[in-house]
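Q: I'm writing up a methods section and want to include an example of the input and output format. Could you take the sequence below and give the corresponding predicted structure tokens, formatted cleanly so I can copy it straight into the document?
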Amino acid sequence: MVMFLFLVVALAVVVAAVTLAVVGGGETGPLPEAAPERLQDPLPYDRPVHRADVEALRFPLAARGYRMADVDDALGRLGAELAERDARIADLESAPGRRPGRRPRHAHLARLHGEARPGGPVSDGTALAGPDGRLRCPWGVSTEDYIAYHDEEWGRPVHGDDALYERLCLEAFQSGLSWITILRRREGFRAAFAGFEIAKVATFTDADRDRLLLDEGIIRNRAKIDATLANARVLADWAPGELDELIWSHAPKTPGPAPRRVGDVPAITPESTALSKALKKKGLRFVGPTTAYALMQACGLVNDHLADCSARRS
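A: Here is the clean output for your methods example:
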């Protein structure tokens, strides 16, 4: 009987060891020291993703919060960062003599600069023909989502406090990520944040905050979620139309020259710096000059479609 029990225990140990090896992908050795013991936020959205972050999502931490979606997200972001590096190199090589560091940082431009449709031509920073033959900004032909957003939304005037609050929030969530990550989650964001109606979001409680931190349909960054809720509470005390008036008062008095290449588009301007300071003075958060300029581009305060882009003329 004792021998029988010994054999059962031994068999159980062997089965457990094999299972662990399979789940762990057959890899051994400790995780990198930089990897956290447990991920409170699955991924760090306030900085680039590193290998240690991806490693931390694998076994043996799989038993304590592993999510395949997080691994996919991490790998996708690593790929985006590599694409950005390659785009930067291509940009510098295609424009000899241009000072480094002037490449725009906005998501549409910084993340997709030089990127074309898979298997299609690579842009040298000038307008690129889309699948229908129309010339567009290079980032605007990379995916169907971008084509629609580029043609129908980006650079077109946006008015209304709730609409501008939504754009301000999404630009803040985009910080450090590719815009496509936000664009494909936009409906998830709208569902999670009550359609970005300022009056409703201002009433969100700690329970709503906890819900948002678990919502896989959005970017679960604690600091950005807190800023979104705090900004709604600030804006709820403003007069109707006050946010619209403040933002649009910072539109340039005269339009600048049409950029011919992506490299001609700035990351910030004196107007975006002034807008950022005005919003911060009013108590809003996550509204730096770069985010403010991205808002100005997206909402039509400036027209940064390239000179040969068909959307600029429409």
